[in-house]
Design a protein that fits this description.
Strand content: 5-15%
Number of helices: 7
Number of strands: 4
Shape: elongated
Strand order of the largest sheet: 1-2-3-4
Structural class: alpha+beta
Helix content: 55-70%
Largest sheet: 4 strands, antiparallel
Order of helices and strands: EEHEEHHHHHH
Length: about 250
């Protein structure tokens, strides 16, 4: 015979009971009975068994070899899920950014000459050089965050003269800049594919959020500059474009 233990519920007309017969079958079975409705009961059952069958045991799981804290003095303590290929890809991208910065710095020096004197171009390429160097430093910082080691590769020599007989120096320099931005973007996409191949979503997210959107916007902007310079030719129009570039930078 089933016995019932009852307690008064805070809800009007309801009683909370644990049926001893049901408890034998399900220790966590509770039923709510409405005295006015008679046999209409609402049963709420809470199972004590794990939903997935997986129990987290931190003091056991931290004993895994890949989670052990290194003791060697020259080994990173923070490194986790960071493949050697990913580390190399970041170092290569640092070199790409520094090389781009070097080219832009040379362009700045050329247009800043007293016998060239296109101050808008000079400022544009100087700021582009600083931006690429900032990108390199951001990548270096990221390398350290992930527990990698920054390795700086050699920077190639760049030309100091940018005069072009057919296009003129302004258009030639801007087309060179456009090609350079596309190259940097191509290298970033390669680094992103390395992250995907090594199952490193954090590195992929870093490249996407910090570089890719900015890169395609720069390509669009410089493409417009190239189109405008092609329209104005090599003569007086270049000076007007330089002035608009100078004032555009001031407004920004």
């Amino acid at each position: 015979m089933a016995l019932a233990l009852s307690k008064v519920s805070p809800f009007s007309g309801l009683s909370l009971s644990t049926n001893v017969g049901d408890a034998a079958r399900n220790p966590s079975s509770l039923s709510f009975a409405n005295k006015k409705l008679g046999s209409r009961n609402l049963a709420v059952c809470a199972s004590t068994a794990p939903l997935t069958g997986v129990i987290f045991e931190p003091f056991e799981e931290v004993k895994k070899g890949e989670l052990a804290v290194p003791t060697a003095p020259h080994v990173s303590l923070a490194r986790q899920n960071y493949a050697d290929e990913c580390e190399s890809a970041i170092n290569e991208q640092i070199n790409v950014e520094y090389n781009a910065s070097y080219v832009y710095h040379s362009l700045f020096a050329y247009f800043d000459r007293d016998n060239v004197a296109l101050k808008g171009f000079a400022r544009f390429f100087k700021e582009s050089s600083e931006e690429e160097r900032d990108h390199a430093e951001k990548l270096m910082k990221y390398q350290n965050v992930r527990g990698g080691r920054v390795v700086l590769h050699p920077i190639k020599n760049v030309p100091s003269e940018f005069e072009h007989v057919e296009m003129g120096d302004a258009l030639y320099a801007m087309e060179l800049s456009l090609s350079l931005e596309k190259l940097v973007n191509e290298k970033l996409l390669r680094a992103h594919s390395v992250a995907d191949r090594n199952n490193d979503p954090q590195m992929a997210d870093f490249i996407e959020s910090e570089f890719l959107s900015e890169q395609v916007e720069a390509i669009k902007k410089i493409s417009e500059y190239v189109a405008q310079l092609r329209r104005v030719g090599k003569g007086h129009g270049v000076w007007h474009f330089d002035q608009s570039l100078l004032h555009e930078e001031d407004a920004a």
